[in-house]
């Protein structure tokens, strides 16, 4: 396993991190989830990413149970706050001081730890002054309940404003967690250059594009039974943007490139995002332990310029690059 600095901090994290969105507490049973976490540890993964909203807090509990007994100092545990949790009351979402302070306590209890290494704003809250949010985060850090602060799916402008306030408050905003893959490159034009300037790293989610880049979805054919595209609990909505015959046909043409590189399609996809020097870690998920073992093999892989060019030639104009997509997909009001 490779380890990389997160932002301009002294914290190192595993280049492959394990995330439990859409799996723990919902798609897979607790014993299978625990087996996946144990396999991640066996493969050298030390960084684990979750959020309070995943399975309405159940995912944090499953992860806490799975990591119980491990040496805490040897792990990097990340969680997030913003989306509705609990009974979805009027203060059960967002980045108000009230919700942040209550949420960190709940997350620590479920994760069975005294602190998280990284506490992340899961989206930007348009209904709360940024000053209030960053002050609350600063107080969470000063109380010892989080070591560093990060964000998820913020625009370059929002990153710059949040980073400036963090500096004024004497805390470290060191990470951004965006969607990023061969097919979804909207961060490259603005978020990545801004992050490089500010000393912020990317921890990217969906590097395999919701499983599309494994090649399991074939053009003109129904999605395999049990796949994410058939999951009406949320997976199908996320993968639907990629379920286009032209796009799926081009993904099939990546197979020879993966074969020549000695990689599976999934390994090629994960290795591709790790070629970006601003990416500190790629988050993988799993519903079976063997998926962890397969994906981890992407760590340390170097793809040469010819391979990267071949990927671009194959995918062509199906790649989404518009930086405005980050703002376009962001919540326009606090969810309830």
From TrEMBL:
Keyword NADP appears in the UniProt entry: yes
UniProt domain NADP-dependent oxidoreductase: residue ranges: 16-314
Pfam families: Aldo_ket_red (PF00248)
Family: Belongs to the shaker potassium channel beta subunit family.
SUPFAM superfamilies in alphabetical order: NAD(P)-linked oxidoreductase
Protein name from the UniProt record: Aldo/keto reductase
Top-level division of the source organism's lineage: Bacteria
CDD domains: Aldo_ket_red_shaker-like (cd19074)
Keywords annotated in UniProt: NADP, Oxidoreductase
Annotated PANTHER family: HYPERKINETIC, ISOFORM M
Start and end residues of each stretch annotated as Disordered: 216-235
Gene Ontology cellular component terms for the protein in this record: cytosol
Molecular function as annotated in GO: oxidoreductase activity
